[in-house]
From TrEMBL:
It comes from Barrientosiimonas endolithica. InterPro entries: AldOxase/xan_DH_Mopterin-bd_sf. SUPFAM superfamilies: Molybdenum cofactor-binding domain. This is Aldehyde oxidase/xanthine dehydrogenase second molybdopterin binding domain-containing protein.
Length: 97
């Protein structure tokens, strides 16, 4: 979800009336498996004293905030261009003339 927010997902508004133009998933690109390269998940064996009896702890969508920032910082390190909005598109990374 964080990678999608950083690279693909965009809500577009009609500047005249303020209505959303991207109202459904047909016009709103959400990344699929083919859009994302291999992602390695690392499981930690540390005991969390605040976890529930199943050993789980819900954090909801707040956990994706760091992923978006990591992608944008990786783009900065790779290109030297600091993106100031998401989604980051190729035209934002090209030199301005």
């Amino acid at each position: 979800m964080g990678i999608g927010a950083a690279l693909f997902e965009e809500s577009v508004r009609d500047p005249r009336f303020g209505h959303f133009v991207t109202q459904d998933l047909a016009s709103y690109h959400v990344p699929a498996h083919a859009d994302i390269r291999d992602v390695e998940a690392v499981w930690l064996d540390d005991v969390d004293p605040r976890a529930n009896p199943m050993g789980l702890r819900g954090v909801g969508e707040i956990g994706i905030v760091g992923a978006t920032a990591a992608v944008v910082n990786a783009i900065h390190h790779a290109t030297g261009v600091r993106a100031r909005s998401v989604p980051v598109t190729a035209d934002e990374l090209l030199p301005r003339s």
